[in-house]
Design brief:
The protein is of the alpha+beta class. It is built from 15 helices and 8 strands. The chain is elongated and about 85 Å long.
């Protein structure tokens, strides 16, 4: 027991700054406290990173089709084909690749369903197999709350908070005393003894990934803790949730929401017996407003929302990020609203992208691979850190 306590503490070394000494203590204690949870978080994060790709692969017979140089059916033709078999089209997802099938959402016998659809031959390919989805639901449940409900959520949140402190303290400990020691902190001496290699892996890989890991951890806290979400929104120029109700400016979000609801109620009443614009017409109007090729989703008017909603995923930016632009039209095709992602204030942009920023989906496969590698290194840090402490503990026996 005495050796255990000695391994958790040491005296301040000669010429060691007080900050580095305190960071060493904090890094060791918080690392041991949170290592298992951080390992589980990073491991489940690695698995979840490729969720969409694995689900597509699992349903490859439905997702990937051959175009055979045929012209795809127009949305109106798809709607008519579904209608013949008693299916009411409610939404349509059009991919930006010719070799991927459309996804149609429809209502049949009072039930809402979704299915892959071959746009070249008009065949319904079937619903997605839910086996892979169930696996990723379990992975996500572990990642969010260790499958322990709210108690697990708080444990995960506290551990991620400690991980943020570990990343900052680790960076302070990595900083070399002199410039000539910089190379040592940037390379792994693979031919050295195991303890040295293990230390280099912890020190060097931690440095290379600390910014990405910190970003992933903070976006995770954003999802877990309302106070972190509030603080981030305020720091990005938004209003605190507590102050929104007190705001009386023209930018009042509640006032805008109420006005939008009243307009939609008027549309439901005034256009009740008016013929609808066709989906082809709506798509053409949307392409005039958003003139670029992209993954496009079209939601048809329904009881809750009397408008056509068209969302295109814009990747025409410097980093190729997937940014949603939205236009809406009333039932007759009259333009109503246009929301470009680039026009939104920074806090709303962050709110809209918090999840893909956390999961790595923001730039598609390249960013997913990057997040996977960073999360994998995140998995290794508690292991290499524990081995460093274990070696110290054994030396003190």
């Amino acid at each position: 027991m005495k050796s255990l306590f000695k391994s958790l503490y040491r005296k301040r070394r000669k010429n060691e700054s007080l900050i580095k000494y305190l960071m060493w203590i904090i890094h060791l204690w918080l690392g041991l406290l949170s290592s298992i949870i951080v390992f589980v978080m990073c491991l489940t994060g690695c698995l979840y990173a490729f969720k969409n790709q694995i689900i597509d692969l699992y349903n490859s017979d439905k997702v990937y089709i051959t175009s055979a140089s045929k012209t795809p059916q127009r949305p109106d033709q798809i709607q008519a084909a579904l209608s013949k078999s008693g299916k009411e089209l409610t939404a349509l997802l059009i991919p930006d690749s010719q070799n991927r099938s459309y996804i149609v959402s429809y209502r049949e016998k009072q039930l809402d369903k979704s299915s892959y659809y071959n746009q070249y031959n008009g065949h319904i390919l079937g619903q997605a197999d839910t086996g892979a989805n169930r696996f990723f639901e379990v992975v996500l449940d572990i990642h969010r709350n260790l499958m322990m409900g709210n108690a697990g959520r708080q444990i995960v949140g506290a551990s991620v908070l400690m991980f943020c402190i570990l990343i900052i303290s680790g960076f302070v400990l990595w900083l070399p005393k002199k410039l000539k020691f910089l190379k040592q902190g940037l390379t792994v001496k693979l031919k050295a003894k195991f303890q040295r290699v293990n230390y280099d892996l912890h020190n060097t890989l931690g440095f290379y990934t600390f910014l990405m890991l910190f970003f992933i951890a903070v976006t995770g806290l954003y999802i877990t803790y309302p106070w972190v979400k509030n603080a981030l929104i305020v720091s990005l120029g938004g209003s605190s949730i507590d102050n929104i109700a007190e705001e009386k400016s023209g930018d009042d979000p509640f006032g805008g929401l109420l006005e939008d609801m009243l307009q939609k109620q008027d549309e439901k009443k005034n256009l009740k017996n008016t013929a609808s614009a066709s989906i082809d017409q709506i798509l053409k109007l949307a392409n005039n407003q958003l003139p670029y090729t992209a993954v496009t989703s079209i939601e048809l008017p329904n009881k809750e929302n009397p408008r056509y909603v068209v969302i295109k995923t814009n990747t025409r930016n410097f980093l190729g990020m997937m940014l949603p632009d939205e236009v809406t039209f009333d039932k007759t095709g009259v333009f109503k609203t246009k929301e470009l992602f680039s026009d939104k204030p920074l806090n709303k942009q962050f709110t809209a992208l918090a999840k893909p920023l956390h999961t790595g989906e923001i730039m598609g496969l390249p960013s997913i691979i990057l997040y996977f590698l960073v999360s994998l290194i995140g998995c290794s840090l508690p292991v290499t850190g524990f081995l460093i402490w274990w070696h110290r503990f054994r030396k003190m026996k």
